[in-house]
Amino acid sequence: MSESTDTKTIYLFGQPIAHSVSPFFYNTIFTKLSLPWRYIRLDSHDPEDLMWMMRRDDFMGAAVTMPNKVRAMACVDVLTEEARRIGCINTIYVQSGHGGDGERVLVGTNTDWIGIQRALLRAQPKLKEGDWSAMVIGGGATCKSAIYALAEGLVARTIYLVSRDAGEAQSAIDDLKQRGLQRDICHIDTVEDVTSLSLSETPIVTVSAVPDIAPKTEPEQRARDIAIVMLQRKPGCQFPRIFLEMCYDPRPRTWLAGVAGEADWQIIDGLDVMEHQAIEQDVLWMGRSLSELPVNDAGKAIRDALHRH
Question: Domain named Shikimate dehydrogenase substrate binding N-terminal: which ranges (predicted)?
């Protein structure tokens, strides 16, 4: 990918995204490297809005967030193997076409799973080995990335999915298995399902991907009760249990992360995931190596932005 003096634009495509601090990360990278690039919000749930921007000469890519991670797949020319197997994308980047005609190819991929895997391994390298189970709380596209990270990026034996919507949970499980995932994934639907598990089957890793909102419906309360009971079980593992909170606002902790902390889980901040996956996005967009990117400055920028908020 050649550098140009012309302004290049990368979009954050999702809705609502006014609260997102990710522009502070990417624009710090571009500023530190003296690049005339910009990362701007495209607050929309309509893929046509993104496709319109894709036609612009300055389009260099997009970060895709909710609720667009599945629907944006139809906007690209090619999907990477990871995107195909997970069934959603969070990144679009531009490749030069093959054949020398200069035609641009829009590639959709998923770096969420890389961010989750690297954040977990940074906290506990022993997750590369052993025989352990995990829990994922939620049911959307991010949860599918989490399941893929736990099953393919790591070595989770069994993954329990806790969701307020049993149909959505089963649909996610079925879709991942149709796409080739071989691990044992099961939806936990009642507290009794939890208490019937042996201690050896109890999760030692949890990824929570739900908003920090108090339950308002019976299914939401049931899902929270299941998560609480699971978090309070003591499997007697050889290293600290890890709770990865994908929701990094409010700070310092969400309510569920507070429950996990009281039960002696090690809490990992969702910003760690964001930074790891964002670095991978920058490598794809810019064609630069990790060692060339001022990631420490960018990480400080988003933490300062959250502190101001």
Answer: 12-92
Q: Give the span between the Cα atoms of 309 and 21, in whole angstroms.
A: 10
Whether 206 and 293 map to the same domain: the answer is no
Q: What is the pLDDT of residues 74-116, one digit of tens each?
A: 999 999 999 999 999 999 999 976 555 668 899 999 999 999 9
H or E, element range at 269:
strand 266-269
Weakly modelled stretches of the chain, pLDDT under 70: 1-5, 97-102, 236, 238, 249-252, 309
Burial of 85 (0-12, 13-18, 19+ CB in 10 A): middle
pLDDT digits (tens, 9 = 90+) for 119-163: 999 999 989 887 899 999 998 899 999 999 999 999 899 999 999
CATH of the domain at 103: 3.40.50.10860
Active-site annotation, residues:
69
Residue 94 lies in a domain: yes
The CATH number given to whatever domain includes residue 158 is 3.40.50.720
With beta carbons less than 8 A apart as the criterion, state whether 144 and 172 touch.
yes
CA 92 distance to own-chain centroid:
15
Neighbouring CB atoms inside 10 A of 32's CB total 15
Range of the domain at 67: 8-109+274-307
Give the span between the Cα atoms of 247 and 269, in whole angstroms: 8
Bridge partners of 59, per DSSP, are 9
208 shares its domain with 287 = no
- Number of separate domains in the chain: 2
Q: Give the pTM.
A: 0.91
Q: Which of 88, 85, 145 minimizes the C-alpha distance to 118?
A: 145
Q: How many residues does the chain have?
A: 309
